[in-house]
Amino acid sequence: HVPQGPVCTNLGLKPGQRLTVKGKIAPNAKSFVFNLGKDATLVGLHFNARFDAYGDVNTIVCNSKKVEEWGAEHRETVFPFQRGGTAEVTFGVNQNDVTVHLPGHQFTFPNRLNLCVFDYFDAKGDFTLQSLSWE
């Protein structure tokens, strides 16, 4: 069972804007998830940091979900998170993709659902949200 954290709706993030998530990672963390999309059923970016989950160790897995249909997984092997540490991730919304800014690394994930606005964000798993800011 994955603990459900905060849920935000009506964010209204449009291309050119960014969302920064900060928080603490549990000392015995297995994984945590950030979802960004239109709502809970249309997830443009599912960001899953896996310390040790689903057969992955220290891997970030990103995907998109349209209702119950998942897309192809995108894996990043750069893993800047530590159990018991703090995490800061910024999601920059662009016209055709989302840029994910991690400490010392960044990558882009395509906007597969062609969302023109990202209204929804949630955080789940072994992570305690401390602040959420957008510009």
Automatic annotation (TrEMBL):
It comes from the Eukaryota. Pfam families: Gal-bind_lectin. GO terms for cellular component: extracellular space. PROSITE patterns: GALECTIN. Keywords: Lectin. Residues 5-135 form the Galectin domain. One of its GO terms (molecular function) is laminin binding. The keyword Disulfide bond does not apply. PANTHER family: GALECTIN, GALECTIN-1. This is Galectin.
